[in-house]
Fold:
Amino acid sequence: MSNILFLLIAVPYFYFVFINHKELFKFLIIICVLFITSLFVTNQFKVRQSSSYILTVDQSLANYDYTTIYGSVGISKVKVYLNRPEELIPGDKLIITGEVKEIEKPTIPGSFNYEGYLRSKRIFSKIDITSYKKDSSSFNVNIIRYKISKYIENVAPHSKGYIKTFVLADKSEFDQSFKENVSSLGISHLFAVSGMHVALIVLSLVYGLKKLKIKESIQEIIVICFLTIFLIITAFSPSVIRAVLMYILIVLNKKYSLHYSNVDILSAIFIGLLLINPYFYLNPGFTLSFLVTLTIILSGNLLKNGSKINQLFLIGLLSMLVTLPIISAINFKINLLGLIANVIFIFLVTYIILPLSFITLLFPVFDIFFYRVIIAFEFIILNLGSINIFNLPIAFTNVFYVIIYYLVLFNWFVKIEKKDNIIKNSLTLIMTVILISISNFISFTKSVNFIDVNGDSTVIIDSFNRCNMVIDTGEYDEYDGVINFLKSKNVKRIDILIITHNHSDHYGEFDELTKNFKVINIITSFDDENLVSNNLKCGSIDLYVYPPSIKKLDENNYSVVLILYISNKNYLFTGDIEKVREEELLDYHFPNIDYLKVAHHGSITSSSNEFIEHIEPKKAIIIVARNNRHNHPSIEVVNRFEDRGITTSRTDLLGTIEHMYIFGKEFQRYNPP
Structure:
């Protein structure tokens, strides 16, 4: 869809430029050719399967029982997994053997695109090491960052997390709960080394060099050299690259009277970086950095007047508005408290936390003092982050919503600058955001979604937000795949949550689900009172829950079994029942089954010939994890369906399987790895 949309926008634009600006059109064609060439060349940087490889370590992250290594095999960047903790330093060379695998794409809509993030770093392959040995060592530019990191750990053990964050752009010391509070307040950008940090460094250096009465031309050379070193120790963070190049090009523009505007310079950097790495745009930090910088440049007239507090508030407001679709794709919400929080924390970070980070790096004696400041700083974050009443859940569920939002926002910018109907246009913008937030209330789409989880989970969403249902949650997932899928659909409550039986791969996310959503009704196999024969209705969806097993059997065979009626289609859900329970169900009449959610992930113990012949499904769907230890699904079971002409769809091959119904017409979408 996004590719089609790109063509719909690009073709008219190119035609307009061709008719009105032929010189610019030639330039655009050259840029496009260079970009496609760069894309082709970059895609060749993949590791080919071989008996062994020489791996040069760039970065090593040792955990309790494994080590993640980022490095190079020849000219190819790779991510490598070692199944033991190992202390490695940049420049170490290892002779390794292992299996090369492609980085999997996200298979659950709404989940973080880690594959794209690694592509932005030119990493296309991963290697699971089976054996290795250290060979030699050579100089690697990342050793500078490594040595500084070790120095910080040794001399500033109390404040090391903040010094690493603001000096090295390394946030690994922060725990997850702190990151969530920072994200909730919408101040994550303050913890990413960016233009603000570079500006402070430049101002400090220039001030000191002026005091030493060094000539301006020499000052510029010293500052550029220092910024180059800063690029290295921050591992060439996209936002730092942008800020450093902006400074250098602005200096050259002024020195040689080139008369380029700041927008021209920013655009040149953007194009240049994409030609060097055409996948840079997949890095959220890259996109956010350029988007916010462009907004601040274009809003110069709005920001030039007023007090510092007003300017900080406006910068926070404009940054929040322009990045809303991107941030909501990550957090699925905006925190209106963030407008005030940004003013507070921009001041605290700019004038206290950031300077103290560099001061403590140079003078470790301030470690304890800085630590006490950090305690107060985190106390404020913790208390503000715990206030949830200002959170507005929102997800841009459709790319057309993004277009509409930016058109309204652009109009708002123009009207604000002209001071024309400010209240009216502000209300229009607010209403647009609210309508997008409640878009599921005006959605004509119904869907049945088989989520690609470890275990079993199906999400059913009715049109017009009349019913949201979850059948099983999958195993516990630290990345919250099912939860993020629901949030990405703007779901805010669950009308019926069904846990088919008491196995963790079916209820593992139960606690997280109930924390994140209001759950109205719960049906489980844990409570016999819930397992009487049930005819249920939820919105336009009908359910029939079959009576529990006659005998109290094991957990699998005591699974909740139900039929779902949606948009003239019948879905049969069978939990993890096995042959003994299937024999009991032979006594029941089943309507025409359009889709069977195959029991027990396609295990040989389920889906007997007699049961399949009795229910006669038209199609079968197997929710099964890739490379699972039980080797599900059984080939014999798959053949039982195929021998009867029953099409089988599997999540391990197709990713999340989405069945959508619009005005009674069915559409299917897959998310393969």
